[in-house]
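User: Could you check the structure of this?
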Amino acid sequence: MPASGPFTLDKTERVTGRTLVETLFKGGESRSMSCYPLRVVYCLTQRDEAPVRILVSVPKRYFKRAVKRNRIKRQVREAFRKNKHLLAGRMETLPDKTLAMAFIWMDDQLRDSSEVESKIVNLLVRICERL
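Assistant: Sure, the predicted structure tokens are below.
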């Protein structure tokens, strides 16, 4: 976990940079799973600042208004921030690796925050089992 605390989402925990995004989506070592309405694409890369890094994407074809897209991104980030401790123990066993994840929204309906959080927890537990 970063020095800022276990329940924060620091800037170093965000996927940035073209090379990391291309590795995540075009790399042969990335994996994918879904728990409707979310899909997660993840891969292990060489360790940098944070043990886990995320990216949240809500396609414009589902929500034309940026307000709604931003609401969903905020819900996903908040659910991840509150439950990232599920991955912390597993990533400690891989000291030289970083887990990069991209959460992609696949529905044209807004969901309640509790439902989004339960889907995120489901995905994080499944990723822990696969690593």
